């Protein structure tokens, strides 16, 4: 191929070059500045993640959704999977749901993260994310949504969320799938699908395959357009219903507030309050009956007088046992469990036989157990027929044998309560005792339940009328359970052994369980030692006295044991406790006990030693009055002159530090009656040291003045003492006195304060 040679002159070349330059400048002007784009993106992102209110977050999310910047989309997808950003996730879903003009580019990228969010959504999140999915064509979400609903490997909560999302889809194919779900193997899915269809005005008349096929054919027969028209009408109807419900709720709250205020006005008028509550307990509105039940409960558990409550409200409460409203029956049962003094046993028993709701029936059974326990207690004014006890116990066995841990626990508790006070022949009682043992042996799923069952067995080994039979049946279980890793089980085992024989239990348990990893067990054993401990328990208790959690309990247990110990034992423990630097208050209480023991046994040397230790402890505790009392008694009773000299010096120190000048003077006067006081005597050294190094409340001059008042005749015969008085007087006179504060009147004008 040959090309023609084209000749372009110089002016033409210049023209073309200029045009291209202008185009380049124009093109660059059209390109946004990258820094400005990044800055705006950051502003939008910050408002989206941390906006001060929801509207700001929704607006910012909308701007990020409409952005073509890949980083904006990455931020949104990341937030949808971030459980730590709940407010931002909801704002994003609302912004997506508000895209009525299809402004979001590549919005299919959001389907997968939205469906992941749907799988984990809870409460208000669920509707919000389900409404966000409505902006997509049903074809785009049908397959992944079906996988969420139909996959049996998904948790039931995830599948139910998918059913809810199908319920909101404005597509006939979603309705078809809801109908198909009526045949699902999981009852919760069937119920959810049925509820969804009913909410759309499509009665779920049956779950068999033929009925489902007929329903699907009918839906498909009406066609897509007719279905959409029907949908729009239905949605409008639902909005009206929602508005009416909201209005009704507002009025209900206003009414409830008004009756609450009226009830409060009655104050302490018991008669008026009972009449007011009685009328509300018989209200035709369930909400009012529930309100009244709450007030009765509050009154019953409170401290206000309730003398008229049982008599005047009891009949109304018993009627509510069979109320048509489930919540009323449930709350009535819970209240009656607290009001065991109200004889509701026969009505409860009959209602349990016909009660359709399992949770309500269980609460009624619990209430029946409490009522029967009170009725069959020795001092109860209620007299029930023995057949009620028998029926209740048989019912308790049914609950005991339940696989539900809560029911089984309550069954065991009722058996324990009804056997506590006797009333059955031994062979009849043993039937229920054995039932407890078998249930415990068969339990291998819940350690908490095992512990609870063992606790009921432990209680029956205590004060119950059948404790001998219970011990024979249960003791081996307690021993075996001591090696169980579960804390509740070991605790119950310890309780059982203690209930059988406290002293034997302590001897058995102190070998391996005083340092059990469970603090409750350690405390149980310390408390047991306080009650039945012996000197053999002091060794392990003393190791705990400085522990923060167990120290006070351990010390109290030791003191209890010391109370019943001999003086010799206590004397043996004095140096052991001193080695442990026992806290002052504890050591003083122990020494005071030791003093009483030594005094009772006339152990003179022990008593003298203890009193001296007590004096020292009181000095440390700054209780100088008690210290002086003990030192004075020791000085009075001691005949050893060396000890007396030392005691006299210590007593003088206490008097001086306590500011007791008269006692100090009397102590010196009494000594002077016996002999002169030389400078080398301990007593003189204490006085000399204080005068030259005062560290108390007494001025040295005041002390010297008091000592100088001692009878001159006594002092005159004591030249050594008189010489010391003279020396101390000279010493004090030689100490320069501080210059007096200058008087302002004598100051020059320039030094005076203004």
CATH class of the domain at 36-239: Mainly Alpha
Output the structural class.
Answer: mainly alpha
Taking pLDDT < 50 over at least 5 consecutive residues as the criterion, the unreliable ranges are 1-31
Query: If you compute it from the alpha carbons, what radius of gyration comes out, rounded to the nearest whole angstrom?
Result: 46 Å
CATH topology of the domain at 36-239: Leucine-rich Repeat Variant
Overall pLDDT confidence? 87
Q: So what's the oligomer here?
A: single chain
The number of helices is: 39
The CATH architecture category of the domain at 36-239 equals: Alpha Horseshoe
Largest sheet: none
Shape: elongated
SSE blueprint:
Elements: H1 10-30, H2 34-50, H3 54-66, H4 70-80, H5 86-97, H6 111-120, H7 124-132, H8 138-150, H9 156-168, H10 172-180, H11 187-199, H12 209-222, H13 224-265, H14 270-281, H15 286-301, H16 309-319, H17 326-338, H18 345-354, H19 358-375, H20 386-400, H21 405-419, H22 426-442, H23 447-460, H24 467-481, H25 487-500, H26 502-509, H27 519-532, H28 538-541, H29 551-563, H30 567-579, H31 584-600, H32 604-620, H33 624-637, H34 641-658, H35 661-674, H36 682-692, H37 700-708, H38 712-716, H39 719-734
Helix pairs in contact: 2-3, 3-5, 5-7, 6-7, 6-8, 7-9, 8-9, 9-11, 10-12, 14-15, 14-16, 15-17, 17-19, 18-19, 19-20, 19-21, 20-21, 21-23, 22-23, 22-24, 23-24, 23-25, 24-25, 25-26, 25-27, 26-27, 27-29, 30-31, 31-32, 32-33, 33-34, 34-35, 34-36, 35-37, 36-39, 37-39
